[in-house]
Amino acid sequence: MSGTLVLVRHGQSEWNLKNLFTGWRDPDLTALGVEEANAGGKALADYGITFDIAFTSALTRAQKTCDIILENVGQAGLETIRNEALNERDYGDLSGLNKDDARAKWGEDQVHIWRRSYDVPPPGGESLRDTGARVWPYYLTEILPRVLAGQKVLVAAHGNSLRALVMVLDRLSKEEILKLNLATGVPMVYKLNADSTVASKDVLGDMSNAH
Q1: Residue 165: left (phi > 0), alpha (psi -120 to 50), or beta?
Q2: Does 4-91+128-209 carry CATH code 3.40.50.1240?
Q3: How many alpha carbons lie under 13 Å from residue 121 in its C-beta half-sphere?
Q4: Which residue from 29, 93, 102, 117 could staple onto 33, CB 3.0 to 4.6 Å apart?
Q5: How many alpha carbons lie under 13 Å from residue 104 in its C-beta half-sphere?
Q6: In what order do the strands lie in the sheet containing 152-157?
Q7: What stretch of H or E contains 136?
Q8: Is the pTM of this model over 0.90?
Q9: Which residues does the annotation place in the binding site?
């Protein structure tokens, strides 16, 4: 058996709370977001896992979630690699806009297409496919080799950067991945086979808070 890969979406951010498109903007966690990160960390501690290394994005909300989780499993200060390859999808011209205001400006149908299509980017931004195009090579070169070498790896990132990874790991179609929402602060524990396919997957918490 190879190692273990744990994926966690950051806890609620201030802009999640305000219903704003966030993307590469850098708001902090809310009090609830800190609670969600702590809950995810406690779930991992109860699961009995510790990590060899952690990866996170260049954005505060993911980094703080990562730090909180590591504190909960007794590994504060563990080597953590930060890289913008794991950043949230870039929403371009939508970044910072309230989702209702965006609908008023561009129309409900157009905003829905940008949010929920696989390969149609918003103006100046990235589609889910574009996000995958930077996440997948980083995963293959930096993260997967460590898991296949038997390490236990934590990745604390974002809804869309993690959806790109889950799409590959769970072998989901373009249609299936668009329906998948990842809950904030809920760890997904993957054990991988030597050929990098998934041997098992455990979700440690309630996926009903996905949005």
Answers
A1: alpha
A2: yes
A3: 16
A4: 29
A5: 5
A6: 80-82, 53-56, 152-157, 4-9, 188-192, 198-203
A7: helix 128-138
A8: yes
A9: 9-16, 22-23, 61, 88-91, 99, 115-116, 159-160
Strands (E) in 39-195, as ranges, are 53-56, 80-82, 152-157, 188-192
User: At residue 13, what are phi and psi to the nearest 5 degrees?
Assistant: -100, 170
pLDDT digits (tens, 9 = 90+) for 69-99: 999 999 999 999 999 999 999 999 999 999 9
In angstroms, the CA 90 to CA 21 distance is 9
**pLDDT score, position 87:** 98
What's the DSSP call for residue 81?
Answer: E
Q: Measured between alpha carbons, how far is residue 84 from residues 5, 79, 135, 181 in Å?
A: 19, 17, 9, 21
Q: Verify whether residue 88 is a known catalytic residue.
A: yes
Catalytic residue among 35, 36, 88, 176: 88
Question: Which position among 10, 36, 126, 158 bears the catalytic label?
Answer: 10
